[in-house]
Amino acid sequence: MHPRTRSYHHGDLRAALLTRAEETLREKGPAALSLRELARDLGVSHAAPSRHFKDKQALLDALAQSGFERMAAVLGASQDGVPEKISEQVEAVVRAYVGFARDNAALLDLMYSVKHDPEASDALLEATQRWSDLVLRLVADAQARGEVREGPLEHTALPVFATLHGYADLAVSGMLPPEMDEHGLDVVIAFILRGIRP
Amino acid sequence: MHPRTRSYHHGDLRAALLTRAEETLREKGPAALSLRELARDLGVSHAAPSRHFKDKQALLDALAQSGFERMAAVLGASQDGVPEKISEQVEAVVRAYVGFARDNAALLDLMYSVKHDPEASDALLEATQRWSDLVLRLVADAQARGEVREGPLEHTALPVFATLHGYADLAVSGMLPPEMDEHGLDVVIAFILRGIRP
DNA sequence: ACCTGAACACCGTTCAAGT
DNA sequence: ACCTGAACACCGTTCAAGT
């Protein structure tokens, strides 16, 4: 009857599941995420997803992984055309990170949730590595230019990392007096710069 | 038959549910938390919990609230007997916060999750306020002693907040090169002190 | 007041069977 | 290869009824 009886998803059910899952996550929260409903939305049987994700957790892990990858891309792009000056670079990264966090609050929650089972997620680990490397490299370069205090990279970059992430997380979970949601960004950037300057 | 047929929980089913829920959260993670299993564990019918929590979410909110309250207590206690010197005070708070985060990883996740529905959780909001007030007061006092740079409290305390929370969250979700899990603490404390000194 | 039992509409996961 | 249908053992929530 319907012209799309034979695979609406062009054999790309896996990708379709991920896309739809992220929409649901964004619109209705993580609790509303069900494999059966996803399957219903995509017009396949409830057992079909299991061909592509052995588990609900596997779907969530894949979602988290794609989140880290896109975040790395956003952070990377934030440095385009920014002069090699640590203050401007830090400002750009912080704004990009907080922006990503705001636009993908529920996804970020999932990305940093304590869940993802130890094994099976080497890909996830690699994805997280990629964006932390980005910050590390940024700090390392500035250090080479003498704009950042000396010391092992883990010592100089770690607190930047922590402050960046902490501010975004607090802002996203509504823990901040809302009157400074925007102003707070400048304050945090200035704080980071004070903390890393030579 | 059994001597405990009449209310094993001495009419304190609500408290018993919270206690057991937190055990399950700690031992088996949030996904394993089910009202029905909780009821089974406590020897009541599966419908009994609804007398005390209108919702599963209500149970989770109550759990989060008790988390914030205990965290405020731990942070408060961390200042006992600490000399009025901002460096020592910050060190004590940071260690206390990270310690609490480590000991209650899953609970912290829940506390900061994007979930808790806007209404119904005034109590929750109040509980979060209490611990942020603690940090605010600490910074304000040090500021009065001239140990912290001038400026509105939200500007001086906010980044402390962010760094503190960010480090704990990263450490707990295993995002840090584990070799500096302990050493990182010192680095972060030093960074915070650099950021707030006059 | 507090709890039970049954009922309803959902889940995730597995597995034979179809194409 | 990829998907279906039925089956199994679970869920959360509601509501009459019991004590």
From TrEMBL, chains A, B:
DNA-binding region: 34-53
Superkingdom as given in the UniProt entry: Bacteria
A Pfam family hit: TetR_N
Keyword Transcription recorded: yes
InterPro entries: Homeodomain-like_sf, HTH-type_TetR-like_transc_reg, HTH_TetR, MT1864/Rv1816-like_C, Tet_transcr_reg_TetR-rel_C_sf
Domain HTH tetR-type: residue ranges: 11-71
Keywords carried by this UniProt record: DNA-binding, Transcription, Transcription regulation
ATP-binding is among the record's keywords: no
Stated name of the protein: TetR/AcrR family transcriptional regulator
Organism of provenance: Streptomyces spinosisporus
